[in-house]
Structure formats: C-alpha cells, structure tokens
Amino acid sequence: MQYLRTLANGLLLAALFTLVAAPLVASGVRYQQDAELAATEDRYSDAAEYYEQAARRLFWDDTLWGEAGRAALMAGDLAGAVRLFGEAQNLSARNGLALGDAYWQIGQPAQAIDVWQELLRTGQASGDLYERLVKAYWETGEYAAAIENLHLLVDLEPGNAGAHYQLGLLLTATHPEQALPHLMRAASLDPQLDPAVQILRAGLNRALLEDDRAYQYAEAGRSLASLGNWALAAEAFRNALSINPQYAEAAAWLGETYFQLGQDGYPYLQMALKLEPNLAVVHVFYGLYWQRSGKLEIALAEFREAASLEPQNPAWQILAGDASARSGDVMAALVYFEQAVLLAPTEPDYYQALVIFCVQYNVEISDTALPAALQLVALAPNDWQSWDALGQVAMATGSLDEAEGLYLKALGIATQEAAIHLHLGILYLQTNEPVSAYDHLVKAKTYDVQDVYDAQVERLLERYFP
After folding, report:
1. DSSP strands (E only) in 58-105
2. Are 385 and 356 in contact (CB under 8 A)?
3. 405-423, pLDDT tens digit by residue?
C-alpha cells in the first residue's frame, strides 16, 4: 500500500507539473521561434528580447542566454550583451569570445582579458582566442604577454603568416636577436609581407653586427619607424635608453616617435640636444619640431646646422631646401635641392624632390626641372612617380597633350594612385573636358586612403561641380 501511495503521489506531482509547466514551455518555444525569425531578418534587437524571454521559460537550456547576448551584440547593445551573457551558467567558447568582444568595445579591456583568460583556463583555447589576447595585450602595451600568446598561436597554427609577422615585429622591438626567424617565416608564407620583412631584415642585420645592446635596439627602432610602426619603435628606443641613458640619437628618435603618436616628445629632443649638440640627426628632429610649430626660421637654422654637420647627406639638403622655400627664399632653396642631386646622382628620390620643388614654385622649369625629370625617368622607368613628375613638367610648360600621355603612362603602372588621378583631373579641367575631369577627381578622392589630397580635391569639386 505504501508503494502504491508513493506512486500515486508521484503521478499526481508529475501531472501537476505538466499542467503548470506546459504553458510556460509552449510560450518559451514560441519566443525561441520568434527570436530565430527576427535574427534571420536582421532584427537583432527584437531577437535579443525574444531569446531572453525564451531563456527565462526554458531555463534548463543555457545556450539561449548566449544567443540572446550575441543578438544584443549584433544590435549594438553592448551593455545588454554583457548582461545577457552574464546570465549563462556556462559560457561556450563562442559566447566567451563574444562576451570579451562586448567588454572590449565598451572600454573595459581588463574584463575582456579576464573572460578570454578564463576560456584558456577551462581548456577552450583556439586561434581566435589567442588572436584576441594578442590584440588586447598589444594595444594595452603589455608586449611580453602579447609575445607569449603569439608563441602559443604559431605553435597551434604554424602556417599563420600574420601571427609570425606580428611576433617578428614585437621581437624586433623587445628581443631583436630573436626576430628574424619569424619574419622570414612570415615572408615565405605570404610574399606580400616580403617588402616590409626585407626592411626589417636589413635593419636587424646592421643591428646584430654590433655587440652594443643599446645600438641594437636603436637600429631596430629605426627600422620599425621606417614602416610607420611608431608604437613599437618607441618601445625599442625606450629599451635603448634604459641600457644607455646618454644615448642622444635614441632620445631624439624617441622624441619624434612620441610626436607621431600624438604625445609630447619635446623633453627628449631637449635631452638629445644637451647630450650631443654636434649630432646632425638631433638638429633634424629639433628642426622638425619647430617646423610643425610654425617657427620656420628656427627650423631652417636647425636644418642648416644639420647640413653643415653632415654636408654629404643629401636628405639634410632637402630639408634645408624645403624650409628655405617655406620661408620665402626660393632661390636659396633651389641651391639645396640641386646640391642633394649632386650628392646622390643615382638616387631617383632626390631628382623627384627637385622636380616637384621646381613645379610647385614655378622656378627653372625648362633649365632644371625638365632635365631632372628626364634623368628621373632614366633611373626609374618602372616607377609611376617618374612619369607623373615628367607629366607635371610638361603641364607646367603648357604641353597639355604631352602631359596627358605621360600621366596615362603613369596610370598604366599604378591604376589606383590618387595623385595621378588628381593631376589628370586638373589637366582635363584646363582642356575643358568636365566629364573626364570629374571622373578622375572622384577617383582621386576614392583612392586617397590617407587623405593626402582630400582638401584639394574637395575644393576643385566644389568650385567646378557645385
């Protein structure tokens, strides 16, 4: 009898549970279906709300909280995504990555890293996870942790060219003697990385020829700076100064890197000038500081000092020439530009600088700019800039048909180069071909990813195509 009573009670409880739970389950299923439909229609805000309602009713299905969080993330509701993910008892690797993404996007990097590290601790490592940790540690300046996770990533994905390259970059700034194998591996996996790798390789080879550790870091920093990687360059120069606090050149470079990073590098420039007042590169960076501050006379004096300290360096001649022109002394500037060409008669860059200067200031177009442009083409016939420069000279002399042909030759080498399209746009405005002019000006704006010509193109479009 006791057994029968127990069985009857159990059946009664089951029946009561069914009566109570059935509507709850049915509504939960409906909410889940509504959520799935909303998600397929990209109504992610609705989907998040429906998934949340489903999760509250189908409470044994922990995955619904994750779906709700992901929908909120897709809707741009970052705070909502964090809240919804937090309701789940156990986060899958996919949802853990998404929760970290939400924390990262709302400006809470420490919480993001904690979530991703928890995935590691629970054995849910993946390439996506390591990549997130690398990015987080890199952007927060925790380079040692970024390197550690990159090592784990390349162990997991030995064919990941980007990971090898990133590891090579970080090691260049922090352990230059370890960088080359990863850089070379990256270039072998992805040939598009080879030009950057060769620049770093050359710098590292120079660096490692010397036993001076501070010099090694400084040379590594210069290589990184030449690639525009200013944050890692700064790290390398800081490492150089930590070893040798009297290293004036490293201090000057560090001052420049801080400017490039939007920070105040002036104290390091002052430090460098005090340490080595007769070092040309110190005066160069000091001059650049004053030029950017609008103090052209001070900048010119610094560049002239650099040129006098290293009279065989054509780069300093160009800087002094540019500063002279900006200060209004065009003929003095011409002397500096011509001197640069005399010092480096086989280097195309200096001929190009001379040509562009002459065209910009309309000085000695036929006598100086034209021969320089022809020599530029002879030295670098496969470089679009050579033909573009010769086109500018032709245009400056009024030979518009010739200029068009030269620009089109340049365009055949580099079809998406904004400068060529800008020059063609200006040419077609002068030849009264508005359709072609507009087409090239729009292309110039499209291809100008660094906004070098944006202001000029906008002025032309507003003036001629209001």
Report:
1. none
2. no
3. 999 999 999 999 999 999 9
